[in-house]
Design goal:
Strand content: 5-15%
CATH architecture: 3-Layer(aba) Sandwich
Number of helices: 8
Strand order of the largest sheet: 2-3-1-4-5
Bound molecules: adenosine-5'-triphosphate, magnesium ion
CATH topology: Rossmann fold
Helix content: 55-70%
Distance between the termini: 10 Å
Largest sheet: 5 strands, parallel
Shape: globular
Order of helices and strands: EHEHHEHHEHHEH
Number of domains: 1
Length: 204
Amino acid sequence: MNKARFITLEGIDGAGKSTQLPLIEAALKSRGIDYLMTREPGGTPLGEKLREILLHQDMQPETEALLMFASRSEHLSQVIRPALERGTWVISDRFTDASFAYQGGGRGLDYEKLEMLEEWVHGGFQPDLTLLFDVPVEMARQRLMKNASLDRFEHERGTFFEKVRKAYLDRAARFPERFCLIDSSLPLEKINVKLEEIISMLCL
Ligand SMILES: Nc1ncnc2c1ncn2[C@@H]1O[C@H](COP(=O)(O)OP(=O)(O)OP(=O)(O)O)[C@@H](O)[C@H]1O
Ligand SMILES: [Mg+2]
């Protein structure tokens, strides 16, 4: 049996992460893989409380970054690492790349500071695969407009998301061995085929 993999989903708000989760789930289930789905911020009882605060309460960018990593620390020790150790795959809707994209790219925090937090919270531990759903900002906004209520991040301007998108693409270029870029402007059927191929390769 393959070792349990840690897969993260990334991309700007409205890129299609949540939309693709059921498909990834089905692909793993059909192969008899034991997995769990989780998300950030959140994933633990404390993390979900922090998520509520992060998505709805105004705060300084530094505070935002620290709370994201606080949630992540709890998530890693209580959920992610124990699952991987017992052979369960972990699929997380966002992880540390989101901190570099949103708090770094979007809010303008120093990458060095974020790297210090990353080093403190998870050292050399990284996802085995990061699926980056990339879509033009305007298209993502059009898709999000269908939602009734938007959170604090989703209310940000287009220029904020341009910076977030660029920071994500920079991360993908810097870590090509773990990133897989998915053109999320394509119709869902095309994305589904691509994801099925990626999961097949991972399961070989
Ligand atoms: N490839 C696609 N083609 C058309 N519509 C799409 C596509 N992918 C997602 N959508 C639609 O876009 C909207 C936003 O998608 P989704 O909620 O999956 O984004 P998300 O990346 O999870 O966003 P958030 O970060 O805010 O949770 C949904 O209404 C979804 O149905
Ligand atoms: Mg989502």
